[in-house]
Amino acid sequence: MRPTPSRLLNILVPVKRAVDYAVKIRVNSSQTGVDLNVKHSMNPFDEIAVEEAVRLREKHKSDIKSIKAFTIGPPKSVETLRTALAMGADSAVHVELPESAPSPEPLSVAKAIRSYIGKQESEGGVDVVILGKQSIDDDLGQTGQMLAGLLGWGQATYASKVELDLGKKEALVTREIDGGHEEVRVKLPMVVTTDLRLNEPRYASLPNIMKAKKKPVEKLKPEDLGVDFTPIIETLKVSEPPKRVGGGKVESVDELVEKLKEHGFTAV
After folding, report:
1. pLDDT for 116-141, tens place per residue?
2. Under a CB-based contact definition with an 8 Å cutoff, are residues 174 and 160 in contact?
3. Would you tell me which CATH number, out of the four given (3.90.1300.10, 3.30.43.20, 3.40.50.620, 3.40.190.10), belongs to the domain 9-262?
4. CB within 8 A of 16, min separation 6: which ones?
5. Distance separating alpha carbons of residues 8 and 206, to the nearest angstrom
6. What is the DSSP string of 175-186?
7. Does the model's pTM come out above 0.90?
8. What pLDDT is stored for residue 160 in this prediction?
9. Closest to 189 (Cα-Cα) out of 170, 176, 213, 202
10. Contact 150, 129 (CB under 8 A)
11. Taking every annotated instance into account, which residue ranges of this chain make up the domain Electron transfer flavoprotein alpha/beta-subunit N-terminal (predicted)?
């Protein structure tokens, strides 16, 4: 699936509702997962993705037609979409799941996004997908790569800088890699996953928050996209790590050696 980008580009930004990054995570009483009865917000890496989409449009005003936010989740996920709309997205799509449904796995999310993109071809298609490199709840970091594979599109992961060359219908993306940076050129359409140093997301102003309430949010069901969100991975048990034991001080190297011997460490 490789549509030819039109002069006016359409950007899709998948976002996820996750436990707020400032919340102390606790395992629930049944040990089936973490306690979700806490504050939620947009996944921080997805905030960066929304911000980057808005900045690209500010830079290429006459060449970017629309920015659309996309999420999959329970009814409360619409709050996450409203945040994206307040930041500058034009419209949003909510694939609604039951409140009790488990969090969708990366492959099913990628399939849902691919299906939605396929349905948009008659309306100009999608030229760029920008999403966070990972979500802070499961830290899997797989959705962007799977989506690019399913679509047959080029991808640039862990992006710390994105520059569009609309004349050549390509992008120059700087990627975070071990020990430095890497620059890659990617033809449109493409998938980009965002890293922390790409930008600093803006705060939504009160007027924009009010405007966001009037922006359109399309509601879809899983069957509309032909995707089954039933998990294929079974979580057997979730438990907290053992509590750290306080350390001690020694007065000399000899005392340190004796302490190590007491704990079973021997000199080589």
Report:
1. 999 988 777 899 999 999 998 888 88
2. yes
3. 3.40.50.620
4. 42, 43, 46, 71, 72, 73, 80, 132, 135, 137
5. 29
6. EEETTEEEEEEE
7. no
8. 95
9. 170
10. no
11. 32-229
